[in-house]
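JOB MANIFEST
job_type = single_chain_structure
chain_count = 1
residues = 168
[input]
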Amino acid sequence: MQELEIITYRYVNFKSYQVLGFLLFSTSILSYLFYQSISKNVSNLFILCIILLFFYLLFIIYAIYKRIILTTNGIRYITPFHKRFIAWNEIKTLGSYAIFRLLINNIPLNELNKFRFLEQKFIYVSKVENYIIRSGIKESNNYIAFHYRPELLQKIQEYIDMNSTTTK
């Protein structure tokens, strides 16, 4: 069976107020430092601006390239450095969590639409039964996590349900 792409999402939700705030804040700081380095003729500050600009552009490129692709065969996770794939029939756990600063709170899927102050919400799928995201665990090929979007969660649940009924 040929693999067909269902939907593609960028990993970073550029409509999120946190991401827009970061971009606006970092652009203004970088502009101010650049202006100060030119007006006061400070070469160290100019070099710092160039280094910050490099990391800023690296973040933008990475955020644009990193994406989640739902296909008829499974979920693809693509970054500039690696790729992962989990087939629909391999998914054993579908869960969600929220991050506040460095704390990870696992939350039920039905509470994702509730307002959570200053928390970013994520969805994850895993090949491991009853998998739970914890702080300090490095990324592995056993799970894929991405920002919560209602339509994305709905599509994933549809395909998991559809695949579970066809394999029985």
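[summary]
The helical segments are 17-39, 43-65, 150-167.
The chain has a mean pLDDT of 82.
exit_status = 0
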